[in-house]
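Supplementary material to the annual report.
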Amino acid sequence: MKTIDVQLAENAYPVYLGQDLLTQADLWHRHLGTGKVLIVSNDVVGPLYLDALTNTLAGRDLEVHTLPDGEQFKTLETWSGIIDRLVSMQARRDASIIALGGGVVGDMSGFAAASYMRGIRFLQAPTTLLAQVDASVGGKTGVNHVRGKNLIGAFHQPSTVIIDTNTLNTLEAREFNAGMAEVVKYGAINDPGFFAWLEASAERINKRDPDALNELIEQSVLNKADIVRQDEKEAGVRALLNFGHSFGHALEAETGYSKFLHGEAVAIGMVTAARLSENRGLCPPGATRRLKTLLQTFNLPVSIPADTDMAGMAEALKLDKKAVASGLRLILLNSLGSAQVDQDSSTEDIMQAMNESLN
Amino acid sequence: MKTIDVQLAENAYPVYLGQDLLTQADLWHRHLGTGKVLIVSNDVVGPLYLDALTNTLAGRDLEVHTLPDGEQFKTLETWSGIIDRLVSMQARRDASIIALGGGVVGDMSGFAAASYMRGIRFLQAPTTLLAQVDASVGGKTGVNHVRGKNLIGAFHQPSTVIIDTNTLNTLEAREFNAGMAEVVKYGAINDPGFFAWLEASAERINKRDPDALNELIEQSVLNKADIVRQDEKEAGVRALLNFGHSFGHALEAETGYSKFLHGEAVAIGMVTAARLSENRGLCPPGATRRLKTLLQTFNLPVSIPADTDMAGMAEALKLDKKAVASGLRLILLNSLGSAQVDQDSSTEDIMQAMNESLN
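Predicted assembly:
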């Protein structure tokens, strides 16, 4: 087991990484409060791992709340169902929520933990690659609004993140690949060495070689923690983590949050943003092709579907929360391994890059 | 105009106190961000003061969102209407919300400001005495759940609080008196001199003498700021501010949030808690009578209505968020001007004090 200490200004918490962690009782008891425990999971992950976790927590005053699986259920209504459950079990301020599942489970139960009685304890047990490398660091919680992703939420840091890498064994290929999109992102924006390592290790990764996966998760968590530490409330450098996300969010909104997994939309968004960077001369030629090739190695989509309503996407981009009043704020590449915040793209530049990304 | 600097660990902000502040443009522009502005008010306060405030903010990209008046509308549904409005006006992270109204408007728009895009700027313009002396310091925001008050919410400090004391001229007597309950509370828990001043100044206060009101608001804000500063997240001494609130909340819940104003329920709750303190020998005899007399001077109710379902109240108390697992945590008096957190009351003690408080 590895322990990565995430040190933030106001909070510090450990991320544990290894096999069989769902059954290590001491780890869990160390980080749970004294009160009641609500495990929030979904109907896909729950049947696989709930037994192991509830056995580990035997003796605790514990309930399980199961959500339907899927980004389309990341709504105020589902969130309010978690709140109702906390109320009906008479959870108090000393209660804890454990999120057992992917990013959707984590985001919604995190926002429930942030807002129930103005904040209770929150433990993350991410079971997808995406949640392990992305959602477990940063404290972002939230739900979608019909007009935009994550428009409602809070910053709420977990007490701990416990990553049992065994859970990746049952993760279906499409979900695994979607997680790889965020992994590639860390290389693209911040770490040229890691990007090259991913190119060299693609075959081992696709075979889910345990050592390669451990290395990949650890490097991703370290990269993200490093960026978040510099900027907990996302005013500056942390924005780089949104590389590919403005286009990705717009595409998700335009396709009703049902066609693409988040990571798939981000993969397409990163290629679009790289293309815009190249078109504007910010980044040397060839970066887009190299990024596209690596993403395709992980079977990720890299083009906007031909039937997408581009006017709708443009409208969705205006509302994206990464924007500020003065112009659309995008993360663009300087090179593979370095990115910047940019607000100088014209609407024409943006539409051209999107059109060139059409399938 | 007086300026009270509220100094908290993570945030510091000024509370301005005086006449005609709604029309002092420089004050408002100094604290608003660069983005769009949403004024949230209600259908009673709005018609009285919205014109003045929107004139003051002429030139701003501004919208007004009007809520129905009353604690019974302090729900997730009303809150989600504010969120929808922010979305439809395409508010971004640089937007500000101004709460123009009483505690309900402040609590709900504060929670909207806390959770829209994980937090935008929030300015308070409290127009009731209760909101001026209570809600303007502490950063508590939230909405009610059908099973308990303020079960959903966040801590979100305002950028500033602007108290235009002219707004008290139009405040109806019942609302004014309800605010006096919280004012009396500061004396009872923390400031024997202020308690005595209130007894001596009751006549001037009831005539709404401007100097008496200014003194009363300033002393209340200073008392509350002093307590909050010691304990921003309500783990210790801040709990004293809940004097009378556990019983008050239970009574409000049991009567559907429609029979009593918050301050009225707190008045009854304080008398019940004082009685419990005396019964248990924690507080010298006579304190309950003196407290009751002062509250009655301000025309506040001091008894639980005869037809109240006491079993329902007992059940509501169990869920009250001021409770922790080990027993009902209540604020009890050591004397008039000093209070303590106590968890040693038996169910019998508590029921007895409630029964003795029955009308």
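Chain B has two domains: 2-170, 173-356.
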